[in-house]
Amino acid sequence: MQDFSAATKMLEPLCANGNPGLQSAVARIYLQAGYLEKATKYFDLAAASNELDESAKHMDAALLASAQGDWDLATTLLGKALEEDAENYAVRFRNCTIFSHLILYRQ
């Protein structure tokens, strides 16, 4: 069962300490729930942190871009994330997913 509301209700107060990993996690939950505005808010907070590595920032931005239908930007950002962390399985998997959507979108 996907209880996005309970997840965000539990995690949002923990974001007050400025933990970019938690902010990114909350943003991804909002993204899955379809709340792009709230997802953007938390992605922006995470991206402003020096503690979050660039690969993670590019991954977050790529997820948001794909949710907005901006496949070209998502592809570019995932390429950057892959360059920065070529061994990251999640980046490779997301690249495959975005590329398959991009192919279908352009047909």
Give the integer mean of the pLDDT values: 80
The amount of helix comes to over 70%
Terminal CA distance reads 34 Å
Total number of helical segments?
6
How many strand segments? 0
Give the overall silhouette.
Answer: globular
Percent of residues in beta strands?
under 5%
Helix/strand order: HHHHHH
* Content-based structural category: mainly alpha
User: What's the structural domain tally?
Assistant: 2
Largest sheet: none
Low-confidence blocks of residues:
none
Determine Rg (CA atoms, Å): 14 Å
Explain what the structure shows.
- By secondary structure, the chain is mainly alpha-helical.
- The chain folds into two domains: 52 residues, no CATH class; 54 residues, no CATH class.
- The N and C termini lie far apart (34 Å).
Descriptive terms for the model:
107 residues; 6 helices; 0% strand
List the helices and strands and how they pair.
Blueprint: H1 4-11, H2 20-33, H3 36-47, H4 54-67, H5 71-84, H6 89-106
Helix pairs in contact: 1-2, 2-3, 2-4, 3-4, 4-5, 5-6
